[in-house]
Design goal:
Length: 440
């Protein structure tokens, strides 16, 4: 095994001078020595490749590589592979670079990690401080767009789960996924041009449990997030959620599924078209906010609070009765819209009828509220895409959303569940007929 040695030497003034100046000298000297060592390693690899492979030299061409140690200018050989009958650059191939790529994989990964957390300007400066490679903000933006597009081509498309039956486990394999939370929501990011509509970003957070972390705070267990393609419908989001839940969490027909939301109409599509056993839970804060806006009062009748939790049908009736008593058409329409909202989300207000022992077993999973998804919307989207003066093109936002989703999911503590195919029951002829009838 070949060994390489790295050594540095710096001059220190009498009395040692300032610490920061010495620290800067050491960093710069380390980079300079590192670049020389890396250049030597690249040349040695190239020479060994040419000597050991059936290739013959054609010509040498110079290229400036951008690495974590700074820029390295190298005149490398272009050789022709005798068997493959094509010309290659051994150094470029070893570094995993294409014809027009200069940044090393390590520098690209560092740039991506910085850009998904910070604005492009700050990220560019941080990368320059880390690596010594100075680039323009536009160059960083182009690198991110290209890297995102490259990674997206490597992700296989999800299976189509709309209207399909979830897998059913055979007896004897236990309950691989006893409970799953899937909370969806949406928000908007500013468009680059004022005349364009705001970009809608739908997102869902998936988790298998909650752990109390301080007063009034919960930590989600086995958390993952799914960000929708910008300006796409709910079906795209829920299909990806279902595909991820089945393949990475082991979701099956016997799993308990809970979905908390604010009552937007598209949220119900998850239960209607993808996961029929889902228990929908409507967030009380959004309900009472809409009630205050509709009746134009801060104080809500006490019996309305009780009806929300115990008898939503009675609450809807009281709201409709109030609408009939309104003399002004404008006020009556506001109350009628509230009644329609409550009617559409009646299922989410109904008592869950989940046994108390199940609620105790899965602490916090059945607790009403949308705090889980609201906090993750802030973490996943608002912190990066909704800062002051931030405006986005559709493609630029889509590409960075893809990278941020990957970055966040890698940062969470997540254990993927692998279910062997033999654990699932095979679909019978009757099951296939039911699928066909459902599609019709």
């Amino acid at each position: 095994m070949p060994k390489y040695q790295l050594s540095i030497e710096i001059d220190i003034p009498e009395g040692f001078g300032e610490f920061q100046a010495i620290e800067s000298k050491i960093v710069e000297a380390s980079r300079e020595s590192g670049r020389k060592l890396l250049e030597k390693i690249l040349r040695d690899y190239e020479a060994g490749f040419i000597d050991s492979k059936p290739v013959w030299k054609k010509d040498q061409r110079e290229k400036e590589f951008e690495t974590m140690l700074g820029k390295i200018s190298l005149k490398r050989w272009r050789v022709k592979d005798v068997f493959k009958k094509k010309c290659v650059y051994p150094v470029d191939c070893w570094m995993g670079l294409g014809p027009y790529q200069k940044a090393s994989p390590g520098l690209v990964e560092t740039t991506v990690n910085q850009c998904v957390e910070k604005p492009y300007g700050k990220a560019t400066k941080t990368v320059a401080l880390i690596s010594g490679v100075k680039k323009s903000v536009k160059s960083t933006w182009k690198l991110i767009q290209g890297e995102s597009a490259r990674r997206q081509t490597k992700i296989p498309p999800p299976d189509d789960w709309k209207g399909k039956t979830l897998p059913e486990l055979k007896a004897g394999y236990g309950n691989i996924c006893p409970i799953l939370g899937s909370d969806p929501d949406a928000t908007y990011a500013k468009a680059r041009r004022k005349e364009d509509k705001k970009h809608e970003i739908k997102m869902a957070v998936i988790y298998t449990g909650k752990k109390r972390k301080g007063k009034g705070r919960w930590e989600l267990l086995n958390k993952q997030v799914v960000m929708n393609v910008v300006n796409q419908g709910a079906d795209v989001l829920f299909n990806r959620v279902t595909d991820k839940a089945v393949k990475e969490y082991g979701l099956h027909q016997g799993s308990r599924v809970v979905s908390h939301g604010d009552g937007d109409p598209w949220i119900k599509n998850f239960k209607d078209d993808y996961c029929p056993q889902t228990l929908l839970r409507l967030d009380p804060w959004h309900v009472f906010k809409k009630i205050r806006e509709a009746i134009d009062r801060e104080e809500i009748p006490e019996d309305w609070y009780n009806d929300f939790y115990t008898n939503p049908g009675k609450l809807i009736g009281k709201v409709k009765h109030l609408a009939k008593e309104m003399a002004e058409k404008k006020d009556r329409e506001k109350i009628e819209q509230l009644a329609g909202y409550l009617e559409n989300n009646r299922e989410g207000m109904e008592p869950s009828k989940v046994p108390v022992e199940i609620k105790k077993q899965y602490t916090g999973m059945y607790k009403r509220g949308s705090g889980t998804i609201e906090s993750n919307i802030f973490l996943g989207i608002c912190q990066r895409f909704k800062a002051p003066r931030m405006m986005w093109s559709e493609d630029g936002l889509k590409n960075l959303c893809f990278l941020r989703e990957q970055y966040l999911n890698q940062s969470f503590q997540f254990t993927k569940v692998t279910v062997p195919p033999k654990a699932y029951k095979e679909m019978t002829y009757a099951d296939e007929l039911r699928e066909i009838v459902r599609d019709l």
